[in-house]
Amino acid sequence: MHGWDWFGLHLQLYPPSEINLPEGFPTARNVEVMKLFGFNFTVPKQFDLVVLMMTKCPNLCELEIVPKEFIPRDEIEAAAKSSIDPEYGFTDQDLGTLKTVKMQSFRALRLEILFVKAILLNSPALEKLVIQESPYIDALMASKTARKMLCFPRASPKAQVVFLEYKSP
């Protein structure tokens, strides 16, 4: 399923693989909870769409990202080799009402790490950032990435970063 589903104060997004960012996207003041399904951090245009959506939802309180289950190794390797500016994303945006962010299946991809950094830098009301590791990340990489992200500066003095190990169902 691709497209938009509006449910009261909730927005669910299933991003298509090919994205053309809309011009003059309207502000959605009534969206408080956003859930992104099938998101792929190896596709910069999907990242751009998330940034656009977050900045156009000024009352956003909760964000949950459920990534695409399988990402081919060649896409991951290409993303790792790409030159992405560390300031890429929404470094100037104030996400003043964002309190909770949940990220599932975290693989420590470059855009994922930049996303976490931007969330911490731009969310003065952030209370909790929960990161569930992917079954496809090794323990050493997960540990190194967690230590690195715990050192990121934060706009909210009370922001907690919680890392959860993958547990098979």
UniProtKB/TrEMBL annotation:
InterPro entries: FBD
Protein name, as recorded: FBD domain-containing protein
Superkingdom in the source lineage: Eukaryota
Location of the FBD domain: 95-164
